[in-house]
Amino acid sequence: MSGGLTILALGRRTDRVDDAWARSGRVTSIVRFEHAATSGVRFGKRIFGIALDALILAAKARAGHSGEKFLCANPWIAVALRAYGVSAFAVTGLYAVPGTNSWKLLRRSLKDIPVVTTAEVEAEQWLNEGGKATAVLYGNTFGYPAASARSTVPTVFIGGTSDRDTELIGSLIDEVRADTRVVRLIVADGSGSRTWRGKRAEIQHFDRVTSDEFGRIMSTCDVVFLPILNKPRASGHMVCVGALECGLPVVSSECAGMDGYVDGKFVTYLDPVVSILEQLIARAGDSMDSDQIRDFWRANFSLDAYIARVMTALDQLTGR
Prior knowledge:
seven-stranded mixed β-sheet
């Protein structure tokens, strides 16, 4: 892969992210649409938000950066570039399932553009349909604070909305509301602000919050639970990585998208035949040191670690 890369991304600029890409020695510039919808939703639809924001960014890139090699941080940015007659050099992320309209549109548009996915199952499916892809483990540096000292009340965190298993969440809530254990459950899924209190247990729901606030809330907990539907696409990675950055252990329901992220020590799978609440309370009470978890995150799931993997993958895909 000769020459520098120009990254196309949606969202606000941060020195932390831009400096990390610059340290790779391969990225010469980053072009953003900083006014992209934070939730990705415009006119009541996520597809409208992503499409409109990607088109604006593609127009900006075409006007001021023609002739550069574009590495798109979202596959829909590459689709938007095609609409302007420009081809992306490569794409990171896919987040689509074969047979869906999204998948069909991405296949028609991206064709043989190299794709670096964050789930092995996505790369395999893309390859099976004639595309060019490889998978790497996702990583990021959100700037989340280190977890605070553990409280006397075990505190469980559930966050995010993508592919969440509502039945599994409901089962956990029912266990907590039975009020037989001293425990606190925090749910940051944007569903509205409300609190339930029993004699021994408590459930607190948060409305939509900023990324920084999401990390701050998570850092006050003892364990992070990922109740994810078993779909053949990447899901849960951002919350998992954010939890590790805070120094918190993670428990995930079993799903193909989490393959490679569950190491059995810092990130574990839920046992489907044992009480969810009992497992989470046990993990919250583990003697695991948060600094040790953060060291594990820094070495394996920080933004620097992720960028290094992406660059190696691009070299492999482009035959460098």
